[in-house]
Amino acid sequence: MIPFIKKVYNCWLDHCIRQKLLHRYLSGISVLIFTLFSLTVNAQSTVRGSVRDEFGKRLQAVNVTLKGTATANSTNADGEYSLTVPSLQGILVFSSVGFTTVEMPLNGRAVVNVDMVQGNQSLNEVVVTGYSAQRKRDITGSVAVVDVKAMRSVPSGSAMQALQGQASGVNVISSGVPGAASKILIRGVTSFGDTQPLVLIDGIQADLNNISADDVESIQVLKDAGAAAIYGVRGSNGVIIVTTKKGKSGAPTFTYDGYYGLQLPESGDPLNQLNSTDFARLTKVAFPGTTLFANGLPDFVYAGPGGTGTALAGDPRVDPAKYNLDPKNSANNYLIQQVNKTGTDWYHAMFKRAPMTNHNVTASGGTERSNYLFSLGYLDQQGSVIESYLKRYSARINTSYKLGKNIRVGENAYFFY
User: Fold this and answer.
1) What burial class does residue 70 get, using C-beta atoms within 10 Å of its C-beta: 0-12 exposed, 13-18 middle, 19+ buried?
2) Nearest to 258 by CA among 194, 214, 297
3) Which pTM was predicted?
């Protein structure tokens, strides 16, 4: 009986040991699998390379993007880039202004070099230069075509202000006063006299400051004598050609553009103002013999037949009962003025928050023989200086009718208040 019991006990003990070993083995396998999975999930790769043009010149500021993601970077001054990607699979997209966009599959490569070719499509565009039209590639250095969509995205009171930073070689200097005209310089100061360029809106000389950016279809800036030759001496400072929106054939279209913004003066005390106590202290430093602040900042100042001076509160010389103002006989006046010891914060008394809102509604449409456009605009721009503002109400109407193959009549009217 005892040998049988020992045998059963040994079998049970052996089973327990095997169970423990199996549990430890499975636990180890689980930890290993989890570790490998974590390494796989967190693994990232770096793609490097360089970008050149068709002549071998390194290109800077080329956008490099992993297609379908927000992962992006740009080339440095040496035309080199580095991009961290989840894996060495996917497609890199290389894009730059003036060059054809290139898509390059990674296919497991960590080094990808790209050659980009100049895009000829934009250079073959026709640009209006007055009464004629030329290919952009022939005058690309002397004409700037403004990206109107980007210009409209800038909150501004007029198309003139919105032009700032939208064209190379064109500087717009604004005074900051709502409604005030800005100064436009094309390629710097070109003369000692008038430096303003010639502005043509739909073929007529006009003021760009009174045109809303929402009404503009296209803007072209002629920057040198070759492009602006037909305008003679009047175009010596450059020419800005503006074309406003017109109706197009198709079903009636209604559009609305609007925004609300807030201009804030500089916070804190940018002028480093003095208060009344500071003023009295500095006056004594500059004029040690002053009687006005001999005993510090007084409570009252007075002036009467018996003389003038300063006094503290409770002094009989500044008793309110003695106050007298006789406009007909100033010799009888006895004036008492309480001193403003806290002072006045003139900066925040003059400057304030300045809201700005703009609304524009347009209706347009047409057929093969006629088209129309009607727009209404409202601008309310408050200045950051009190009592300064610009409110503009505007309406634009233009229609066009084809009476024959070479005859077209219509009008382009703009009203603003």
Assistant:
1) exposed
2) 214
3) 0.56
The answer to whether 377 and 362 have CB atoms below 8 angstroms apart is no
- Could you write out the DSSP letters of every residue in 222-291? E-STTTSGGGGGGGTT-EEEEEE----SEEEEEEEEEEEEEE-PPPS-TT----HHHHHHHHHHH-TT-S
Distances (CA, A) of 411 to 204, 239, 371, 372, 417: 13, 24, 11, 10, 20
Using one digit for the tens of pLDDT, what is the confidence trace for 143-155? Answer: 778 888 888 877 7
- Note the pLDDT of residue 226: 61
For residue 120, give both structure tokens: 């000829």
CA-based nearest residue to 201, from 140, 144, 246: 246
CA distance 133 to 147: 19
pLDDT of 255 reads: 93
Low-confidence ranges of the chain (pLDDT < 70): 1-43, 120-141, 190-191, 225-229
Rg (CA), the chain: 39
